[in-house]
Write a structure and sequence with these properties.
The protein is built from nine helices and ten strands. The chain is of the alpha/beta class. It has two domains: about 30 residues; about 280 residues, Divalent-metal-dependent TIM barrel enzymes (TIM Barrel, Alpha-Beta Barrel), CATH 3.20.20. An eight-stranded parallel sheet has the order 1-10-7-6-5-4-3-2. Strands 8-9 form a two-stranded antiparallel ribbon. The radius of gyration is 19 Å and the shape is globular. The N terminus is likely disordered.
């Protein structure tokens, strides 16, 4: 069976399974996702997202569109993570060269290994709320392409997005579209041993209830939440993060948090770490710095604070 035939077969199978389930004539092979029941005690490992230095990667611009003086590449970013005592390095896909081949990915993998840090994950920009058709196929193909790349690099996790409800599509329809696309990509990810984490990143997952509805509906053991501590702009972001933490497969910590209708304020890092501890989370906690201060100064300072909290 060639790749095209296999994709068509998988898509048909997913659609047929959904139809049968809706009619009560069949049941999916896999159960919906439940909170992770991890034995033992919390194990929290420090990482940094490359997005923290987004304006400094080669070919990046500052907020005004001008070039910046200090430029780095992914190899230098890995060095930064190693030099600051991190267990992992999160390599955001946006900062890879336009043409990525296996040779480059293997050099990245080797460099991280020699510096003693693990590639904790990567990220891909995608929208899964578009209708079935060519555009949707392009979106799923892009995620699958990065699943392949993550496997070559040895990155166990990819954070993905859901998207916004498209024009003429109801929120319910948008969720259904997202669930189908996620299940298709999870089936592929499972073959490569890659976990997909859906980020609470606005759109149809801006509210924790909607995020959890989607996550619980996806039938795959290769899926969970990429929990971003700065992305719930709700009445009580801390409480909402606590609701989602038991489903987390990756955690990204931001230094700011914003309640609904209020300005951003400094996040309580100790409280955020306690939330993931209470969920018995075991995995990477990656700093994703987005505040206005110079990251070359703020990121090391925050890593020192966050690292101490993770070890406490």
């Amino acid at each position: 069976m060639n790749a095209t035939t296999r994709r068509d077969f998988l898509r048909t199978s997913l659609q047929a399974g959904a139809a049968l389930t809706g009619l009560g004539l069949g049941a999916p092979r896999l159960a919906a996702i439940e909170p992770f029941k991890r034995p033992g005690t919390p194990r929290l490992k420090l990482s940094v997202a490359a997005y923290s230095f987004r304006q400094f990667f080669k070919d990046s611009k500052d907020a005004g569109g001008a070039a910046v003086d200090r430029k780095i590449d992914l190899f230098q970013f890995i060095d930064f993570c190693a030099d600051h005592g991190c267990d992992g390095t999160e390599l955001t896909s946006y900062y890879f060269p336009p043409s990525v081949d296996d040779d480059f990915l293997l050099r990245i993998r080797r460099h991280a290994f020699l510096r003693g840090v693990a590639i904790s994950g990567t990220a891909v920009g995608n929208t899964f709320t578009v209708p079935v058709g060519e555009k949707r196929d392009q979106e799923t193909a892009g995620v699958k392409r990065w699943i392949d790349r993550a496997a070559v690099m040895g990155a166990p996790h990819i954070r993905i997005f859901a998207g916004n409800a498209q024009s003429g599509i109801s929120p319910t329809q948008a969720k259904t579209l997202a669930i189908g696309a996620i299940e298709e990509c999870c089936a592929y990810a499972g073959e490569k041993g890659i976990i997909l984490g859906l980020e609470n990143h606005g759109g149809i997952v801006a509210d924790p209830a909607d995020l959890l509805e989607i996550v619980r509906a996806v039938k795959s053991p290769w899926f969970g939440i990429n929990l971003d501590t700065g992305n719930f702009n709700t009445a009580d972001p801390y409480a909402d993060l606590a609701k989602c933490a038991p489903y987390a497969v990756n955690v990204q910590v931001k230094t700011e948090i914003a309640k609904r209708g209020q300005k951003k304020e400094l996040a309580d890092l100790a409280r955020l770490v306690q939330i993931v501890r209470d969920a018995n989370y075991q995995g990477y906690v990656a700093l994703e710095y987005e505040a206005a201060e110079d990251p070359w100064k703020a990121v090391p300072e925050t890593l020192e604070k966050l690292g101490a909290l993770l070890k406490a």
